[in-house]
Specification:
43% helix, 7-stranded mixed beta sheet
């Protein structure tokens, strides 16, 4: 199996025509170098500096300007892990840029029969099944265009999005 990684993986986020959706199911992800310092600052209670997310926010705004949707459902456990709390803080800046991020409790995702794998679905026709190892390191994405596999993931996307809720509402449910 060939995995798409590096620049080829990054191009997936600028090459879709109408929609991109991701199901995120892990409690944490291995931090890229540019995330280590923001996480340290967050955990230390220091002021936020979101400059490291500038390119991502620019990309989200560009997609939104052209009517392309970018949606994600994050499956998380309660109580929230440090990484989840960090990602929620980052989401508060990504959402206004056009990154539609909703949350779903892990137990609910299990009851709904959602897969535990992470994946992207682009334009309802290309599935990028993410390959992560036990240390949460992304090794690449397997690109799948098989109509049955894509349709199965479309159904899971629809179920996940139907049951997931926006960040602030999700956080307030547990308050």
């Amino acid at each position: 199996m060939d995995l798409v990684s590096g620049d080829e993986f990054v191009r997936l986020f600028s090459s879709f025509k109408a929609s991109a959706f991701r199901l995120e199911t892990r409690e944490r992800y291995h931090l890229a170098k540019d995330e280590e310092e923001p996480l340290r600052r967050f955990l230390a209670g220091e002021p936020e500096d979101m400059s490291w997310m500038g390119e991502w926010h620019d990309l989200m705004r560009e997609h939104a300007r052209h009517g392309r949707t970018f949606r994600r459902v994050r499956v998380v456990s309660r109580p929230f892990s440090e990484y989840t709390r960090f990602s929620m803080a980052v989401a508060r800046h990504s959402i206004p840029a056009g990154d539609q991020i909703h949350y779903l409790d892990r137990a609910e995702a299990g009851r709904l029969g959602l897969p535990e794998a992470d994946w992207w679905l682009f334009d309802d026709e290309r599935l990028a099944l993410l390959h992560l190892d036990e240390k949460d390191i992304l090794h690449g994405a397997e690109i799948i265009t098989d109509p049955e596999a894509v349709e199965r993931h479309r159904r899971w996307r629809d179920v996940a999005w139907q049951h997931a809720i926006p960040l602030e509402e999700f956080v307030n449910l547990g308050a």
